[in-house]
Amino acid sequence: MYGIPKYRVWSAEQKGKAQFAEAEQNRRIKIEEAKANLEAEKLNAQGEIERAKGAAEAIRIENGSITPEYIQYLWVRQQGSLSDKTVIYIPTEANLPILEANRNNKQ
User: Fold this and answer.
1) CA 94, 76, 93 angle in degrees (round to 5)?
2) Which of 61, 68, 86, 104: disulfide with 82, CB 3.0–4.6 Å?
3) Angle 93-100-89 (CA atoms, 0-180°, nearest 5)?
4) pLDDT, tens digit, 9 for 90 and up, residues 47-86
């Protein structure tokens, strides 16, 4: 009977130490996650800077000499990144699109 109260005190102390160690570990994990996020954001920013440099260099090289054919080329090249469900309406001579009213009808 003498040992039960001491055991309870010792057990509570051990539980407290375990909770403290767990809280400390969780804090360290959050710090490491924040550092990883910061590093990722820095790398994303560097990527954006390089993209902007490339765009500026392209504009400098083109120097206002963009032709309608080049614009069409860029537009066609961009179409490769669109999904299959994207619908593009191209205006005709009267600036009216050709509508595909029967495109989804199954016969």
Assistant:
1) 10
2) 86
3) 50
4) 999 999 998 888 888 776 777 787 788 877 877 777 766 6
Matching residue, tokens 């961009």? 78
Over the stretch 5-56, which tens digit does the pLDDT of each residue have? 888 888 999 999 999 999 999 999 999 999 999 999 999 999 999 999 998 8
> 80 vs 32, 33, 76, 83, 99, CA distance in Å?
39, 36, 7, 8, 22
pTM score: 0.45
Q: C-alpha distances in angstroms, 72 versus 7, 68, 79, 87, 93?
A: 82, 6, 11, 18, 17
> Which residue(s) pair with 91 in the sheet?
97
Q: Judge contact between 42 and 49, C-beta under 8 A.
A: no
